[in-house]
Amino acid sequence: MSMSVRHPKVASLNGLSFQQLLLLAFLLIAGLLGASSLRAIFTLEQLMGQSRQGAAEAIQLSAAARNLTARSQTLERAARQSLVLADAQLRRRFEEGAREAREILQRLELNGLPLEQSRRWQAHLAEVAVLLDAPAAQSLENERVVAAMFLEIDALNALISQEVQDINSRRSSALQDQIEASRREVTHQVVGVIVLALVLALLLGVWLARPFKRLETAIRLLGDNELDKPVHIAGPVDIRRVGQQLEWLRVRLLELDADKARFLRHVSHELKTPLASLREGVALLQDGVTGELSAGQREVVTILQQNTLVLQGEIEALLRFNAAAFEARQLRRSNTDLLALLEAQVEAQRLQWQARKLEVTVEGKPVTLPLDAEKIASAVGNLLSNAIRFSPQGGAIRIVLSHLPGRIRVDFIDQGPGVDENDQSRIFEPFYRGVRQPQDAARGTGIGLSIVQEYLTAHGGRVELVKDGDRTPFRIEFPHAT
Questions:
Q1: What does pTM read for this prediction?
Q2: Same structural domain for residues 258 and 183?
Q3: How many other CB atoms are there within 10 angstroms of residue 431's CB atom?
Q4: Residue 28 region, left (φ>0) first, then alpha (ψ -120 to 50), else beta?
Q5: 33/171 same-domain check
Q6: Which domain CATH number covers 259?
Q7: Cα(230)–Cα(213) distance, rounded to whole angstroms?
Q8: Final residue of a domain: which of 167, 198, 229?
């Protein structure tokens, strides 16, 4: 007894139903896409926050530069008035303005203003403060110097305003670069997650679809009556249950098939014994062993004899069909030239088609296939015999061998009346006889086409009727690796 070891994770997945696995796959893919979406939203919120913060800082820096210019003007008025009027109140106003100006410069320094510009500005302000402390006799002269100092401070204010604009521009560019980098990162992440989700969905789809393909194959094999292979379907628990039901059905079909074959054998043999006795009795009556028969009695005996012959033919046909159905599962394949096989069957039935003055031709190129030559010869013989039987006197029969991608086709084309439309769906049923029967031929048994179908199906091929106007030629096909 062999044992197979499966990975614990695979075993745990196989313990789930198909619906649960489908839900799990959906949640997994949705989780990946959701995580990617949340990541993108978080990044977007972060960038929006940085953008808002950058805009606010830019506004604050611009406002600080404007305030510094306004403070310079206020300081200039307070300083010059203080020198002229020697007013202590004006001097305190100057000092308060100077303190506020230093605070503004400090904020600008923290936001990237070069120290050199800040120090030059404060140095000029310090010089103005020194001039304010000079003796009153120098007030007029110092007032002109203070005015010159504030001209330089105004020039510095212009430089500081330009520097603030440059700082804002650099920050804006840096923010744009960061936004672009984040956009690329988010794009790559989203695309990667989408690709991963698609690959995962494809892999899960293939993995989940595989048991259904096995189910489809198992059902097809059961439909084709190929019952020798056990049905084993791996996968989710509910799919395995369906596989177990199909295996039960396979075993049951085998039992029914065996019962049918047994029944047919028993019935056929049981009928042959009393039929033989009946035929012998009719023969004795016909030979006059029991006494001379009147004309009416001879007519009755003749009818009995004909019906016993018909009944014997039916029983032998039943036995042949039963044997053919059994032998179809036991193929003895060998490399066979199909064209030569067709020509051999035409030659074997030469007397039949020459008796009806028919012209029979075989067209096509040689092809070698792995076939059970005896069974295919029987199938071809049945189709040719059927074509001969239904062809009009002096007609023509064409057997055309064609090479097609992946298959080999043989068409049996005659000039007969074709199969009635009402019979076409049942023409391959055992013992079914169509309504169009030739008047100059004996009534068929109705098993020839059934045997053809059994043998072609066993070879993996098929036989079918082809609608061609009023004509319905037969066509057989074999699989062939081209």
A1: 0.44
A2: no
A3: 13
A4: alpha
A5: yes
A6: 1.10.287
A7: 16
A8: 198
